[in-house]
Amino acid sequence: MADAAPTPAEPAEPTVLDVAEWSRFEIHSGGKLAGFAAYRTRPGVITFTHTEIDTAFEGRGLGGRLVRAALDAARARGLAVHPACPFVRSWIAKHPDYADLVPAEEHARYGLA
């Protein structure tokens, strides 16, 4: 019996992409769009406005992975973060090592310690 031809495998790990032309970070799982984090930018600042995970992908921690990757990208680019999105804001509150991305004078506005 001959071996079957190899088929391209889906990435084992979800992937996050910055789709700048749509102003959003996307997370893909199993080759499908699982969710996104929309943003607006201005010089030196990125404001996260909305995060959404498709109901078919909920409960897998993809929202947290998406936000972490987006914040890591903001840090790498030297951008200040304004978490207008409640999900991003609550994620930062639970991960204080990312609070430094939000300007100190904005912490009270976003309910960050």
UniProtKB/TrEMBL annotation:
Top-level taxon: Bacteria
InterPro entries: Gcn5-rel_NAT, GNAT_dom, GNAT_YJDJ
Signal sequence bounds: none
Domain N-acetyltransferase as annotated: residue spans: 1-113, 17-103
Membrane-crossing segments per the record: none
Protein name in UniProt: N-acetyltransferase
Source organism (scientific name): Pseudonocardia oceani
